[in-house]
Every structure is written in C-alpha cells, then in structure tokens.
Amino acid sequence: MIVADKKPIEEIIEEIKGRTKILILGCNECVTVCEAGGKKEVGVLASALRMYFLKDGLDVKIDEKTLERQCDHEYLEEIRDMVDAYDAVVSLACGVGVQFMAEKYHSIPVYPGVNTCFLGAAEDRGLWTERCQACGQCILARTGGICPVSRCAKRILNGPCGGSTGGKCEISNETDCAWQLIIDRLNALGRLEDYETLSPIKDWSTDRAGGPRKVVREDVQS
Amino acid sequence: MRLSYPSSIKIIRVPCTGKLDVIHVLRAFEKGADGVYAVGCMEGDCHFNAGNFRARKRIEQAGKILDTIGVGGDRVRMYNLSSSEGLRFVEYALEMYELINTLGPNPIKTAAKKAA
Ligand code: SF4
Ligand code: SF4
Fold first, then answer.
1. What is the per-residue DSSP string for A93-162?
2. Which of A114, A137, A141, A174 is most buried as measured by Cβ atoms within 10 A of its Cβ?
3. Does residue B3 sit within a domain?
C-alpha cells in the first residue's frame, strides 16, 4: 500500500488560516489502512480544527467527507455538487489523491493533510516499512523476493557492498542489509546459483530517471 | 456504600475502556465538556488484555491534540481502579472536579459566550 503519515495539526492550521469554509476529505484506501487519512482521522482533524477556530472566536465551517478513493474520476465526481460551498479542501489522501483533486477542481485550493512516505507493508501494529520504489521493471524473481532497489541504501544489484556487517547495513545497525537478506533467502530456497549470476545493468529509464511515467493499456481502454 | 460524587460529572458507560477513541474525547470538548477522564480497570486486569492500555494511549493522544489547539491537554486524564473500589472512584471524581475548578471552563465555551 501507499504509506502516509499524519501532518502535524499546527502545519495544517498554518496552511488554512484565513479560510472560512473548509472540507476535510479522507480516502478509504491505503491511508485508511495506515491510519493517516481515513474517516476516523478526518473526524479527529475536523473536530480539532473546529475547536481551534471556535476558541479564537472565529466562525469557520469545517465539514467532513471520505471518498472511496481520490485517485479515480468516478469517486471524485461525488463531491462535484458540494465542492463550491467551500473555499479550501484539506485532502487526507496520498499525494496522488491531492493532485487528482487539484486537477479536477481548478477553482478551489487543495492542501495536503498527510505526508506521503513510501510503498510499504504493515509489518506490525503501528509499524510500516518500505518494500518497493516502483522502479517499473521488477527484479524480485532473481533476488529471492527481496527488493534491493528499495531496501538497499545504495540500490546495488550485485551486492552486498563492503559496508555490510553482521547482517546490518552500514547506514544504521537497525537496518537489515538487503543483500544479506537476499543471500539468506536464496540459500534457504536452495537457489544460491541465482546469486552467482551477475545482474546486468538495469534499465533505469522506467524508474524516476526517465521522468514522469505512464502505463498505457489499450486492452482496457474504452 | 452510599457515596456521592460531584453531580456535574456525567458518566458515559462503555463495554471496555478499549472502546474509547480519540474522537469521543474531542467530541465531548466540542460539546462543551470542561474535562474528560477515563476510568479503566487496573493495568494487567483487562478482560480483553489491552483495553485499558489502549485507552491510556488514546487519552494521551487526545491530550496532545487539545494542547496543540489551545484547549489544554491537562483537562484529560486516565485513572485505573478495580470494580470494588467505590471509595477510590469518588476520590478520583473529586480530584478531577478540583482540577477542573482550578483550570476553569472549557475555553471554547468562553469564546462562544464572548461572541454571543
Ligand atoms: S524491483 Fe522495482 S518493482 Fe520490484 S519491488 Fe523493487 S522497486 Fe518495486
Ligand atoms: S550494507 Fe547492504 S543494504 Fe546497506 S548499502 Fe551495503 S549492500 Fe546495501
């Protein structure tokens, strides 16, 4: 999932100061699961903001709504009839949702209510960790299902580097060396010969290096 | 044991303090409560193991939010007692009552009155 973290309320207050009719817009997908921008977080933020402005004697209308997704036309359309009643939207969706919202509704400023962090997994309750950087050409088949692009600090494809010590990466003794994980896993699978095969130079044009990317699928286009 | 506690305290029953969420605490303040406290079972005695620990965390989170927005995080508290401690229940009620008397009313109410 896309993992996001809540923005401090102070920062959101700074962004929306001066606005008088604000819609807090949540998203039912990834940000709900990582407890940063779902219906529950919308409720808490809206309540906090209402009290903040009330306390200062300001009449600010703060409403709440949570859409199924903010990265699809059909769900964003659901607010078409109501959005003109506001002079700002705080979107608790990931950066994709915030942008799609801004692209669709030109006349209303959209502010991000979360920091979008990475593509990751819920490793434990309250612990999300990065697993993928969407490089556009997945090599997990060769690496025992462990991604060196997202989990090795140097993104090296024939690791480990000289800094790997006791299974930990040289950047921190709390970070596993991805290449140690890969070797251990290939070993457990009895596939160490995969490790002996040198990885060719990766085509990074499908990664961010090639600029903004798109997936075009004529088979599903209408 | 016919003990009395301040009549301004309104009890909201939940099946377990683990049911308490940050939003419940915030809504209480939005509706004009001057303080909110949760009374859970003794730590380690929760029938659902972690309900009262969760409640403590949520009370802390609500407190932080109330601090940030200037309502005051010291208006929320978490207490633990066992079901047979009626006296202690009253003690905590009085403690909270005193605390709120010292802190004064919820600033949102004061602001609303000024505006009116
Ligand atoms: S190799 Fe690329 S696509 Fe595959 S998990 Fe790693 S970053 Fe994601
Ligand atoms: S120690 Fe391991 S994870 Fe860290 S940079 Fe080197 S190969 Fe990558």
1. S-HHHHHHHHHH-TTS-EEE-EEEEEEEEEEETTEEEEEE---SS--TTTTTT--HHHHSTT--SS---T
2. A114
3. no
Please indicate, yes or no, if residue B8 is contained in any of the structural domains. no
Residues of chain A found within 8 Å of residue B69, distances taken between Cβ atoms: 9, 48-49, 51-52, 55
User: What is the number of the ligand closest to the CA of A167?
Assistant: 2
What domains appear along chain A, each with residue ranges and CATH number? Answer: 2-118 (3.40.50.2300), 133-203 (no CATH)
Is residue B63 a part of any domain in this protein?
Answer: yes
Predicted complex ipTM: 0.94
Residue B10 lies in a domain: no
Domain count for chain B: 1
pTM for this one? 0.94
* Contact yes or no for B26 and A44 at CB 8 A: yes
Residues of chain A contacting B30 with CB distance shorter than 8 Å: 47, 50-51, 54
Question: Which tens digit of pLDDT belongs to each residue from A188-221?
Answer: 999 999 999 999 999 999 998 889 999 999 999 9
pLDDT digits (tens, 9 = 90+) for B32-87: 999 999 999 999 999 999 999 999 999 999 999 999 999 999 999 999 999 899 99
**To the nearest whole angstrom, how far is the Cα of B102 from the nearest Cα of chain A?**
19
